[in-house]
Amino acid sequence: MARITLKRMLVLLSIMAVLGFCATAALAKPVVLKFGWTTVDSPTDPYALTGNMFKKNLEKVAPGQFNVQLFPNRQLGDEKEMVEGLSFGTLDAAVITNAVIAQIAPAFQLNDMPFLYANEEIAHKVLDGSIGKELMKKLAAKNIIGFGFTEGGYRLMINNVRPIYTPADVQGIKWRVMQNPVFVIMFKSLGGNAIPMAWGEVFTAVQQGTIDGLEIPIAVIYGNGYNEVCKYLSLTKHTYSALGLLMSQKTFKKLTPAQQKAVQQAAAMTIKEQRAQNGANFQVLVKKLEEKGMKVNKIKDPSAFRAKVKPVYDKFRASIGPDLVKRALESAK
Question: Does position 203 have pLDDT exceeding 50, yes or no?
Answer without folding.
Answer: yes
